[in-house]
Amino acid sequence: MCTSQTARPYHQKTDPVAKQQWRDEFKKKWPRLKRAGYTIVAIDQHTQAVATIKRRDWFPVNSRPRLPVSVGREVINMLGAVTDSGDRFVALTPNRFKAEVSQHFLRALQHEFGPKLVIVLDNAKYFIATDFKKQAAADGLLLDSCRRTPQT
What digits encode the pLDDT tens for the residues 74-84? Predict the structure, then answer.
């Protein structure tokens, strides 16, 4: 059975006016950043569950077979980046996304695309962590968050 799920349930709650303001501001910044030699990079994350392996087995007739079933599933976590010129970079990450993993990903992006980057990211916990922001500032990266929460 397939169910429909919203990938980001809070995305619909964002303020459309604030989103449009961000887009307009970024369009104004874009030429100035490009002239200064920056590469614009949008990053996002994705978790994909790995399918289970089904095996045949033999059981006595009229018995109730008990199959070992694990509650948790194996997952693959990916962090991906796309530049304004269409270049892509994807990294498979172990376990869960954390600020430490994001920090290593920033260094990998700098190695791949150069030291002058403008990183456009969402408001995931590991992207707004203080350590992540400190490292980005120390490395000379510019961070820009593309999601705006509703104003109350």
Answer: 778 888 999 98
Residue listed under structure tokens 């095996």: 55
**Distance from C-alpha of 31 to C-alpha of 125, rounded to nearest angstrom:** 30
The residues, any chain, with a CB within 8 Å of residue 71's CB and separated by 6 or more, are none
* pTM of this structure: 0.67
Rounded alpha-carbon distances, angstroms, from residue 118 to 63, 113, 152: 63, 11, 29
CA distance 40 to 85: 8
DSSP 8-state class, residue 115: S
Residue ranges of domains in the chain, CATH in brackets: 13-50+71-145 (3.30.420.10)
